[in-house]
Design brief:
Layout (H helix, E strand, L loop, with lengths): L1 E3 L4 E4 L6 H9 L7 E2 L30 H12 L1 H6 L1 E6 L2 H13 L6 H10 L11 E2 L2 E2 L3 E4 L3 H12 L26 H10 L1 H7 L7 E10 L13 E7 L11 E6 L7 E5 L7 E2 L16 E9 L4 E10 L2 E9 L6 E2 L5 E10 L2 E8 L3 E7 L7 E8 L1 E9 L2 E8 L7 E7 L4 E9 L32 E6 L2 E5 L6 E8 L3
Parallel strand pairs: 2-4, 4-7
Antiparallel strand pairs: 1-2, 1-3, 5-6, 8-27, 9-10, 10-11, 11-12, 13-14, 14-15, 15-16, 15-17, 17-18, 18-19, 19-20, 21-22, 22-23, 23-24, 25-26, 26-27
Length: 498
C-alpha cells in the first residue's frame, strides 16, 4: 500500500494482482512524508525499504492493510476532505486465476499438480486468499479499479491521471508458477463451484467469469448516441461487421459496420479504416424499409461476403402480417441493396456455413431459439429443432466441427453475453459459460442491477440499463450493444487452448 501526500493518491494493494510490482515502481516517485507498507517476499529484497521513506506504525509489517480500517484511520488523521481529494485505486484479478496463483505460491512450486490443486480447494483455501472487493458500506470506495489482465494499460492510465511517467512494470516476486492458463487446473465442476462460492462477492462486483475458452479484453465504445442524426440516437443495436472486399470500388472505408434501430426505417452503416475505430456514420444508411414489404420497421442486419458471386449479402428482419420474419438482400457495393421480400424464417437470423450446408439460428417469438438448414444463401431454410429458452440475439463462429454460439438470455440479471459450444456433427452441447458482463461504465456497469425484459430497452419509455446485448464476432473481435441498446462496443477476443 502507498499513501502519497506528494502526489495525492492512495494505492490499495491486494494479493496476487501484481501489487508488489506496482508498489515498487510507484515508490520511486514518492516523497519523504509518504507512507509505504512493507512487503513479504521470499528471497527478494524489499525495495520499498531502501527508499528511506517514512513508515507509519499503523502499517508496519502489514503489506495488505484492510480497506475499512485504512479508510477509518486515514479520515481520523487527515479528514474527509483529504480522503475525497486523493485519487484512490487498486487492482483485481480473475479469482479463478488467483486461486491457482495462490496455490502455487503456498506450495512454493512443489507438488503443484492439477490433482493437488483440486484437493487444495477442498481444505486449504483461506479467507486471507480473497482479493479485495473494494467496498465500504456496500459502495465502491475507489476512484479506479484496474484489471490484472490489462495491467500495463491500466497502470499507464493511472500514471497519466497522476502526471507520473509510466515506467514499464516488471515482476518483483519470484514466480513459482509456469505459464499455463488457469483453466487447465479446473477438471471438474465441483472444483469450479468451490472457487466460485469462495469468491462469490468478487465475481458479483468485478464481472469475472470462468473463461476456459476465451479471454476478453474490453476496449471502448465505437458507436454512441451523439454520432447519430437528430432523434436517432435513442436506440442503437444489432451490429454486424465486415471487411470490405477488394472488388468493391471506391469504398467509404476498409470496414463496414451495419447496425439497427428497434424501430428502424433503414439499416444503418458506419465505416472506418481501422477495425477498432474511429467510425463515422454514413447517415443515408443502406436498405430502406420502403424497399421492403415490412410494415413498421427493419432491423437486425447479418452481413456476409459471397466471394463466388461477388455479392455482399445481408439478412434482416421486419414485421409483416403474421409477425416478425427474416429476409435476404444483396449488394455489389455494400451500400445499395436489393431484396426479393421472400420470407426465410423467424426473426434475428444469424447464418453460418458448415460443410456444404447453410444454417441459421433465429428467435422463435419470445420462447426460444430455432435452428434452420438450407442448401444456399437464399434457399429454403427448413426448421430443424429448437434450443436455448429465452434467447435474444446470437452470433456464430465455426472452428472445425464446433459451433461457438454467442448469445444473451432475456430475464438475466444483468443480461450478459454467453457462449455455447455445439458439436455440429451431432448437435450435442458440449459446454456453456458466461463470457462477459457489463462492468465498465461505458457498458452500463455503473447502473443498477435489473432483470432484463423482451423488446427494446429504450424505445418504449426506457433508458440506459445495465445490459449487454446483440453479440457479433469478427475474426478476433467481439462487438455488442451497450447499456441495453444505447451504443456499440468492441473488445478483443482471444481463443485459448482446450
Amino acid at each position: 500500500m502507498i499513501i502519497s501526500h506528494k502526489h495525492k493518491f492512495i494505492f490499495f494493494k491486494s494479493k496476487k494482482t501484481a501489487g508488489s510490482s506496482i508498489q515498487v515502481t510507484l515508490a520511486k516517485h514518492c516523497g519523504e512524508d509518504d507512507i509505504i507498507t512493507g512487503q513479504y517476499q521470499d528471497g527478494i529484497d524489499d525495495e520499498t525499504h531502501s527508499t528511506g521513506l517514512n513508515m507509519d506504525k499503523f502499517f508496519t509489517k502489514h503489506p495488505h492493510p484492510p480497506l475499512r480500517e485504512t479508510q477509518s484511520w486515514f479520515i481520523d488523521k487527515f479528514g474527509w476532505e483529504t480522503w475525497f481529494s486523493y485519487f484512490k485505486f487498486g487492482f483485481v484479478r480473475n479469482p479463478y486465476d488467483i486461486a491457482v496463483s495462490r496455490y502455487h505460491w503456498n506450495k512454493r512450486g512443489k507438488d503443484t499438480s492439477v490433482k493437488g490443486f483440486m484437493e487444495w480447494t477442498k481444505t486449504d483455501m483461506d479467507v486471507t486468499d480473497k482479493p479485495y472487493i473494494y467496498l465500504g458500506d456496500g459502495e465502491n470506495v475507489l476512484d479506479f479499479v484496474g484489471k490484472y489482465e490489462n495491467l500495463q494499460e491500466d497502470y499507464e492510465y493511472i500514471c497519466n491521471k497522476l502526471n507520473l511517467p509510466a515506467i514499464p512494470l516488471s515482476n518483483k516476486k519470484s514466480g513459482f508458477r509456469k505459464k499455463k492458463h488457469y483453466s487447465t487446473f479446473y477438471q471438474d465442476d465441483d472444483t469450479i463451484d468451490r472457487v466460485t462460492n469462495f469468491f462469490r462477492e468478487d465475481f458479483q462486483y468485478h464481472g469475472y467469469t470462468f473463461n476456459a475458452r476465451f479471454n476478453v479484453k474490453k476496449l471502448h465504445p465505437i458507436i454512441e448516441p451523439h454520432m447519430m442524426e437528430l432523434n436517432q440516437g435513442n436506440n442503437i443495436n444489432g451490429p454486424s461487421l465486415i471487411k470490405v472486399p477488394d472488388w468493391v470500388e471506391n469504398p467509404l472505408g476498409k470496414y463496414y459496420l451495419y447496425f439497427g434501430h428497434h424501430n428502424g426505417q433503414y439499416i444503418r452503416l458506419a465505416y472506418s479504416d481501422n477495425v477498432e475505430g474511429p467510425y463515422k456514420v454514413h447517415h443515408p444508411g443502406t436498405l430502406k424499409k420502403n424497399q421492403t414489404n415490412c410494415i413498421s420497421h427493419i432491423a437486425s442486419p447479418d452481413v456476409h461476403i459471397d466471394e463466388e458471386s461477388k455479392r455482399i449479402i445481408m439478412y434482416y428482419h421486419g414485421d409483416i402480417e403474421g409477425g416478425q420474419k427474416s429476409f435476404i438482400s444483396w449488394s455489389s457495393d455494400g451500400i445499395n441493396f436489393e431484396t426479393n421480400n421472400k420470407v426465410l424464417g423467424d426473426f434475428y437470423f444469424r447464418v453460418f456455413k458448415y460443410k456444404d450446408k447453410f444454417y441459421s439460428i433465429a428467435k422463435n417469438k419470445n420462447i426460444d431459439g430455432i435452428v434452420y438448414e438450407s442448401d444456399s444463401w437464399e434457399g429454403e431454410f427448413k426448421p430443424m429443432f429448437n434450443l436455448l429458452p429465452n434467447i435474444r440475439h446470437t452470433a456464430c463462429i465455426v472452428k472445425e466441427n464446433i459451433l461457438f454460439l454467442f448469445y444473451t438470455t432475456i430475464g438475466d440479471t444483468p443480461e450478459s453475453i454467453k457462449v455455447l459450444e455445439l458439436d455440429l456433427d451431432t448437435w450435442e452441447p458440449k459446454r456453456v459459460e458466461v463470457l462477459i458482463k457489463p462492468t465498465e461504465e461505458w457498458e452500463g456497469g455503473n447502473l443498477p442491477f435489473t432483470k432484463s425484459k423482451p423488446g427494446s430497452s429504450t424505445v418504449y419509455g426506457g433508458g440506459a440499463v445495465r445490459e449487454l446485448r446483440d453479440p457479433c464476432v469478427y475474426e478476433d473481435y467481439l462487438l455488442y450493444s451497450l447499456k441495453g441498446e444505447l451504443g456499440i462496443g468492441i473488445s478483443k477476443l482471444e481463443m485459448l487452448n482446450g
